[in-house]
Design goal:
The complex is a heterodimer. Chain A is an all-alpha fold. Chain A has helices spanning 7-28, 40-62, 87-107, 112-129, 139-150, 160-176, 187-207. The chains are: A mainly alpha, B mainly alpha.
Chain lengths: 209, 143
Amino acid sequence: MVRKTLKGARNANLFFLICILCIQIIFAGRLFYENDRLSIAFITSISLIALIIVGFFRVILHHSRLDNPIRMRSHDGKPRHNLHTNDWIYALCTSIGAITTYFLSVNLKLGPILGASIVGVIASAISYFFRSKEVFKQLPIAFYCGAFVGMSAEFILNNIVIVGLSGFLAGLIFIGTKNILIGIGGRLGTIAFLSVCIVYVLIKYTFNA
Amino acid sequence: MLNTLIILITTTLGALLTSEISNRLKISKVATSASLSLVFASFFHFFPSVLNSDLTNLLPAAFFGATFTGMSAEKVIYKYQIILAGILFGLIFIFITPYFSGFGGGLGISANISIITTLGIKILFERIKIFYYRQLPQLLKNK
């Protein structure tokens, strides 16, 4: 049986992998700007970045499906594209999770961690009761990803509508990164960090809000 | 110093607990992570005077982030590598995450970096082992 590789899916997966690698290098290299050269922080940053790059080879080779997108059952035998028809639900759920967590943490003053964990518990409970359906298996993951976006402080994202939009962006990135970083924890947080960074930079430097 | 030690112990515990509970009891990873951190955070929310104020703010966040480290699949990281990943996450949480406070996914990206760094250390050790075993016949001949 010949397997067709989908070039668009492979390129999209590689693009997201490179984005994630870049944001992790930026995160780990933050210590460069604060301290002198040849100090412990400088050496730590460099070794962390080197190990991240080395570790990414294992990520790309073993923990990603670059050429083989998730195959849903197709009636005609042809391979499905990277996207599925139910994926828009996940994007909606991340924005709902983000708005709920932001409401719990800022408006009800519970703090970000309590807010995110409450949203996670409720989402898991809801999906447990409907566990027979296919869509509800990935749903708590999408809600949790949105919860991380909603954990942002008020001085980063000050409006709940902006939080919802950034949650929606996180949902889109979540759909795009379905096939990479499989089984590696913290993927949801990386997606949330990426979307919050993009929205923060957009707001701060373009709209001057 | 004591604060650092307590945070490192918390992160290691969080990573280990999450991975063991979700793998042994076959509970979904999101449910274990969320419920464990809910219990931990609510304890410090209702009893804030048990520890000093720095730890009361930092420990729930450290535990929450460590649960993301434990959310990795069992095939990716084994039990003893999770301990290293938890310690690494604790160090990253103490030194790098404060610069990104207020950003939503700061804990998650720290957890991701700690796991990928552990994978990188694993690759390095494997390469060193392969290099050593290739040199071993020559070393034995020279003796």
